[in-house]
Amino acid sequence: MTSASPDRAARPIVLPDLAATHRMAARLAAALRPGDVVGLAGALGAGKTEFARAAIGALGGPVEVPSPTFTLVQTYELGDLTLWHFDLYRLATPEEALELDIEDAFAEGISLIEWPERLGHLMPADWLELRLGPGACPEARCAELFGHGRWAERLGEVEREANDEITHG
Fold first, then answer.
1. Is 97 helix (H, G, I), strand (E, B) or coil?
2. Which residues 6+ apart lie within 8 Å of 167 measured at CB?
3. In terms of DSSP bridges, do strands 110-114 and 8-9 run parallel, antiparallel, or are they unpaired?
C-alpha cells in the first residue's frame, strides 16, 4: 500500500449550505462500490463526520450515525455490502489501524476514512480524497476531490455528477 500524490485533482466545489453538502455526499455514495476507499480530510470541524453521515444515510444506513471518534470504527451492513467508517484522529502510528481490521475493510467493503493522512504508507494506491474546508458562511464548505490511482479515471464522472447535483439540486 502506498500514499502517492494524486494523479488528478478536480476543481473546488462550493457547498453553500448543509443541504448542498448532503446532496454531494449522496451523489458520491451512489458512485461507490465494494473495495472503494474515500479519505475525508480537513481540519477539526470541517464537516468530515457530517459528510460521512449523509453518505451512509444515502446508502440506506441508520438515521443515527454516531461519530467513530472514540470507537475508531463503526460498521454498517447495507444490503449486500459493508461500509466501514473510520476516524483515525487518535492513532499514534499507521500500524494501529491494522488492529481495526482496516485491510479487511479495503478488500471487502466501502471505507470512509476521516483523517486519512494518519494511515501514511498503509493507505491503498487507489483512493478518492475529499478535502473539506470552510466556506463563506458558517454552514458553507469548500470541497476538493483528488483521485489517486484508478480513482483519477473515475474522478471526472464523480465531479460532474457532484457539480450537477449542487447547482441543480
1. helix
2. none
3. unpaired
Cell numbers describing residue 14: 462550493
Q: Where are the domains of the chain?
A: 10-168
Was domain 10-168 assigned CATH 2.60.40.10? Answer: no
- List pLDDT tens digits, range 144-162: 999 999 998 888 777 666 5
Whether the CB-CB separation of 113 and 39 falls below 8 Å is answered with: yes
Q: How far apart are CA 3 and CA 156, in angstroms?
A: 21
As a whole number of angstroms, the distance between CA 65 and CA 115 comes to 18
Name the residue with cell 472503494. Answer: 36
Write out pLDDT tens, residues 93-121: 999 999 999 999 999 999 999 999 999 99
For the whole model, what pTM was predicted?
A: 0.88
